[in-house]
């Protein structure tokens, strides 16, 4: 593994840790504010991506009102590609989210793509997209009323 790949993985690990601890000051530090207006941040629960630091900060301010805790947000698999000062990362995460006023946790597998660029001597995020894995059996059951 190259030094650049190790540095990219370290940034991704810091991202996962900040999400697990709901530390949105730390998440903000990982984003490239010099790319403001061209960012892409697509969480699974929103229909459209956010493209500005202000939108990300507003979203992160919204999260604690709905999410009580994130007991698990861990990379089960990671693939990193570095080309010059750009990097793409794919991750499969095991996740558990405790929503406010809901007894059970929301658990499952989430796939993420992250885009980073080397700037100011660090790797910073410019792209994040997550999509939850939904089994075909679950989808058919929910559409037909059958049990999964």
Describe what this molecule looks like in 3D.
This protein is α+β, with helices and mostly antiparallel strands. The chain has a single domain, classed as Roll (Nuclear Transport Factor 2, Chain: A), CATH 3.10.450. Helix content is 29%, strand content 40%. The chain has four helices and five strands, in the order ααβαββββα. A five-stranded mixed sheet has the order 1-5-4-3-2. It is globular, with a radius of gyration of 16 Å.
Quick structural gist:
With 148 residues, the chain is an alpha+beta fold. It is built from 4 helices and 5 strands; from the N terminus they run H-H-E-H-E-E-E-E-H.
List the helices and strands and how they pair.
Layout: H1 3-20, H2 24-29, E1 40-42, H3 53-62, E2 67-83, E3 86-99, E4 106-119, E5 122-132, H4 136-144
Parallel strand pairs: 1-5
Antiparallel strand pairs: 2-3, 3-4, 4-5
């Amino acid at each position: 593994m190259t030094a650049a790949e190790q540095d990219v993985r370290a940034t991704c690990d810091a991202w996962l840790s900040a999400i697990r601890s709901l530390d949105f000051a730390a998440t903000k530090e990982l984003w490239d504010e010099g790319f403001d207006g061209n960012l892409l941040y697509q969480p699974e629960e929103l229909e459209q991506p956010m493209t500005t630091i202000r939108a990300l900060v507003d979203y992160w301010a919204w999260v604690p009102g709905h999410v009580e805790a994130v007991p698990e947000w861990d990379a089960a698999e990671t693939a990193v590609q570095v080309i010059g000062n750009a990097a793409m990362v794919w991750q499969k995460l095991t996740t558990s989210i405790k929503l406010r006023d809901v007894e059970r946790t929301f658990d499952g597998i989430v796939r993420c793509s992250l885009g980073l660029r080397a700037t100011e001597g660090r790797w910073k995020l410019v792209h994040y997209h997550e999509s939850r894995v939904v089994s075909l059996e679950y989808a058919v059951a929910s559409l037909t009323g059958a049990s999964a």
